[in-house]
Amino acid sequence: MDSTARKFADTSLITSDGVELVSRVWRPSGHGPWPALLMRQPYGKSIASTVTLPHPDWWCSHGFVVVVQDVRGQGDSGGRFQGFSQEALDTADTLTWLRNRPEVNGRIGMYGFSYQGLTQLLAPSDCPPPDCLAPAMCGLHERDHWSCDGNAHWWHLGLGWGLQLASLQAKKRGDHSAWEEMRRSLEDGSYLREGMPLLERHDPDGMALRWLQQTPEQDSEWIQHSVSQRWLQQPMLLLGGWWDPHLRGVIALAEQARAAGGRPELHIGPATHLQWWTESSALLLNFFQRHLISPSNDSADQESDDEIVVWLWDQVSESWCEPNGLNPASSAPSSQTSSQPPSQQRWYLCSRGLACIEAEEGQILTAAADSAGKVVIVHDPWRPVPAIGGHLSPSAGPCDRASLDRRSDVAVFTGETLKGALLLSGTPKLKLRVCADQPGFDLCVALSRLPLDMNTVQQLSTGMLRVRGQGVQELCERELELQPLHATFEPGDRLRLSIAGAAWPAIAINPGQPGIACRAPSADCRVISIELHLEMAQLWMLPLLAP
Q1: Cβ proximity of 460 and 485 under 8 Å
Q2: CB distance 203 to 166 below 8 Å
Q3: Burial, 50: exposed, middle or buried (Cβ in 10 Å; 0-12, 13-18, 19+)?
Q4: What is the tens place of the pLDDT at every residue in 163-207?
Q5: SS3 148
Q6: What pLDDT, on a 0 to 100 scale, did the predictor assign at position 343?
Q7: CB–CB of 110/38 below 8 Å?
Q8: Per-residue confidence at 306, pLDDT binned at 50, 70, 90?
Q9: To the nearest whole percent, how much of the chain has pLDDT over 70?
């Protein structure tokens, strides 16, 4: 590998509506032209997403020109920043400009994660696509993939990201006092209380604030972006993380690409949004080398079927596997007593009323009990159950939730010791009948593994459901989906389901009364008693990918 320092230069283009977009271009040593890697992002071109991805110099050492662009209204680019809605036309102008640059040989790949994952996908329907794309940790639906779970806004994440974008805007216009105020709120944690007023004051037209002000229950209020069929048919590498909030978006992208006739590669690994697995850089490099440097070899990879190439990291064995069929649940013949086929396996809940008090009293069964019972959870907003680990909390990632499960405001249900291995792969779904004594409540659920001969509780997946409005105090059947997972339980392990009335600050506190927004704990928040009626409670697994 050539260790000679790479040179970079800033250059710009003028869009079709007269706005200047500024890019930083890194070139390999020697004489081109070369294939190009393009990233379009709002955080400053000099950072180049090095929080998760290799520096552009590394890509140059492997024979790529790297172009990192400040999107409209951010960094050194002109115009007004308006979020996702602005990107399609600017993507088209940028690709046209890049194809005409003398150092580029005509072959272009796009890369990046999160915001810069979505910029790869948004373009006019008549825009020629790049040769390949690698969108990571992003999605197309602004509610389901960017801002809400189970009708609850992402509180910690939504406010934090909104303030980051607002601070960049303040810096661009030279308002250092606004920048300091927002930065300080993130450092001392006051953003969890003051974040909304800060956004209303410093970025009133921002995309993040709009999301936080929209009603999650009203799907018609939310934007769902579309991708050209031609783009979905291009070679595509999709990266997701088990503890990343955008995982459902990445999976949905894989399904859309398959439906359009594409054959994407999907890798879901041991990653949070900002901490990825070590091999991800090599995975990206191999993808771009195959499709940009040695495209003639691609034909060997093309299959006649339309199956998605899927690699999943097993959260228990901590190893990669290439699943066949992606059955949502499977087990060794001796591991379950149920006569149901593995893909239809269901679990049932049972308690005599002490599942919040006695760790082993609540049960997970493989057959419905004659008398399943009822459990009452009392949510106290003065001491809400905190969110740890998972995909939405400030401490995202794997965790031991044993201390949370010992709280008296968490209902815990535990299965029998497994006699054989059990694979859970897909999206866990929970159904049960619930009512509350106030016109609003939350269900915050965690699915965990209890390893044999250990006192730890390995949290694997979390999910939530927010219920507000008319009929909340009536006993109704409710359903919620948890974060997808892939985990092989070992003989001797046990399955655990935990249910609470809060997950602070992953989501805001439900005040339990209409007319008051879900925010930080306040004197307006009511104590809420939540009744779980278990006679119809069921847990099962949905396939990771739609049939």
Answers
A1: yes
A2: yes
A3: exposed
A4: 999 999 999 999 999 999 999 999 999 999 999 999 999 999 999
A5: strand
A6: 52
A7: yes
A8: low
A9: 93
Helices 176-188 and 191-202, axial angle in degrees (round to 10):
160
**Owner of token pair 């090095």:** 50
Beta strand 152-153 pairing with 237-243: unpaired
The predicted structure's pLDDT at residue 299:
42
Tally the residues of the chain. Answer: 547
Beta strands in 179-306 (DSSP E): 237-243, 265-272
Tell me what the pLDDT averaged over the chain comes to.
93
- Going by C-alpha positions, the residue among 209, 206, 207, 205 that lies closest to residue 195 is 209
Tokens representing 386 are: 């905190």
Instruction: Tell me the three state secondary structure of residue 255.
Output: helix
Taking the C-alpha atoms of residue 310 and residue 251, their distance in angstroms, rounded to an integer, is 10
Roughly what angle, to the nearest 10 degrees, separates helices 155-172 and 176-188?
160
* 310: amino acid identity, one letter: V
Instruction: Say which amino acid occupies 175.
Output: D
Which SS3 state, helix, strand or coil, does residue 485 take? Answer: strand
pLDDT in tens, 34-56: 999 999 999 999 999 999 999 99
| Tens digit of each residue's pLDDT (9 = 90 or more) over 274-285 | 999 999 999 999
* Rounded CA Rg of the chain: 25
Q: Name the amino acid, one letter, at 490.
A: E
- Over 50: is that where the pLDDT of 344 sits? yes
Q: Name the strands in the sheet holding 104-113, side by side, starting at the edge strand that comes first in the sequence.
A: 7-14, 20-27, 65-70, 34-41, 104-113, 132-136, 237-243, 265-272, 309-314, 319-321
Report yes or no: 118 and 146 within 8 Å, Cβ to Cβ.
Answer: no
pTM score of the predicted model:
0.94
Quickly state the pLDDT bin for 327 (edges 50, 70, 90). low
Contact 447, 399 (CB under 8 A): no
> Tokens 């046209």, residue?
96
Residue pair 473/439 in contact (Cβ under 8 Å)? The answer is yes
* Residue 338's pLDDT band (cuts 50, 70, 90): very low
Q: How far is CA 228 from CA 20, 62, 256, 414, in A?
A: 26, 30, 10, 46
3-state secondary structure (DSSP) of residue 60: helix
Contact between 440 and 528 under an 8 Å Cβ cutoff? The reply is: yes
Residues 6+ apart with CB under 8 A from 178: 166, 167, 170, 201, 202
User: What's the token pair of residue 360?
Assistant: 């082993």
Identity (one letter) of the amino acid at 451? P
SS3 432: strand
